[in-house]
Amino acid sequence: MHLSRVGISKLCFLLSLVFCAFLLLLIPGLQPPRRQGDLPQPLPQGKTGWVQGGSVNQQPLKPNVLQLIRAAAPGPDTEGGLDMKEWPVGLLQTVDKRSERAEVLGRNLSAYDPDKRDSSAYSRSTSRQGLPVKEPLKQEDIFIAVKTTRKYHKSRLDLLFQTWISRAKKETFIFTDGEDKELREKAGNQMINTNCSAAHTRQALCCKMSVEYDKFIESGKKWFCHVDDDNYVNLASLMRLLSSYSHTRDVYLGRPSLDHPIEAAERVKSDGSISVKFWFATGGAGFCISRGLALKMSPWASLGNFISTAEKIRLPDDCTIGYIIEALLEVKMIHSRLFHSHLENLQRLPIDTVLSQVTLSYGGFESHRNVVSIGGIFSLVEDPSRFKTVHCLLYSDTNWCSSKRRP
């Protein structure tokens, strides 16, 4: 009797082991099948969905690629993100490691608004599933508006015609407030006398911007870029930047002069007002707007409406541009460190990045010289703005550059 009980116990133990082994085999089969979207996605190879040379093909990004980019976004190089050296080969091929990499990604580089670097600028400047789509762009597709006033025709415009405008005569339009025979001979029909006041007032500035906008719409060109008469425009950098976006999408590129959004009182018909906050690109550094976005601005900007819109918020021309785009159309400005005005300390711009910027400026020749620190064949006395020096470094085949080098 005792032996039979022992035998039964052993038999039950063996059966239990067999049953457990059977259950282990069944467990994977009981799990629901994995969906295709849950499977690990391989990193794209070659050209699929990656930025190459500042351009992006139209393949949508895989989820893990987007996460990679967002992980690297917090810092300009390694700060708070991945080291750029760890990015796949061929991801970025641009001149300026810090500025250009960020521009082609559509990242918001503004140190003034770090919370928006990854989301707002990225979402506004990209396609639904990927990065900005590079499009074929010719220099003739760009409308460059230079705002000036009669008293600066000689002292400022002569320098621009000698340097960068000489390389973009057909694309550059001079907006001034008085007739000038000598300037007319240089610019021809691309000198536009706005008949606006020569005073540096809000009304006069908005009057000129209103004419600039209408002339751009009439031109049929893809991009509207506004600069002042103390800006140097690096045409190659401008082309590289704009070709990273589609002119049919909503693109507003520029640099703020403030470290926070501006707040304005928006007047309404009932004599009351509401507060509105928005970013704007300072006109002193220059800014660019895609044609697709410019056309949407029409109700508030075309045929003199720009002036009435500016009166509504009582702010200058560049602020009004930001108000229309950010506050009314709800399109976020893409902050760019490639644009520069005399309002910043230009001497702090790294020398090895000067030639990759989109715009440069100058100011304060007397007590405090505010120019880029770059050496060349011209002394500070010969070239106080440093525009001639920059131009000769960019275009060494220029006649007066080569003649200067001769002993």
Structure in words:
The chain has 407 residues and is of the alpha/beta class. Helices cover 35% and strands 12% of the residues. It has 14 helices and 13 strands. The protein has a 7-stranded mixed β-sheet with strand order 5-4-3-6-11-8-12. A two-stranded antiparallel sheet has the order 1-2. It has a two-stranded antiparallel ribbon with strand order 7-13. Strand 4 (172-176), helix 6 and strand 5 (191-193) form a beta-alpha-beta unit.
Order of helices and strands: HEEHHHEHEHEHEEHEEEEHHHHEEHH
Q: Got a strand count?
A: 13
The class by helix and strand makeup works out as alpha/beta
> Radius of gyration over alpha carbons?
29 Å
Q: Rough shape? A: elongated
Chain-averaged pLDDT: 78
Distance between the termini: 122 Å
The main β sheet shows up as: 7 strands, mixed
Biggest β-sheet: strands ordered side by side in the sheet:
5-4-3-6-11-8-12
The number of distinct helices, counting runs of at least 4 residues, comes to: 14
Q: Into which percentage range does the β-strand content fall?
A: 5-15%
Brief synopsis:
The protein is α/β, with parallel strands linked by helices and 407 residues long. 35% of the residues lie in helices and 12% in strands.
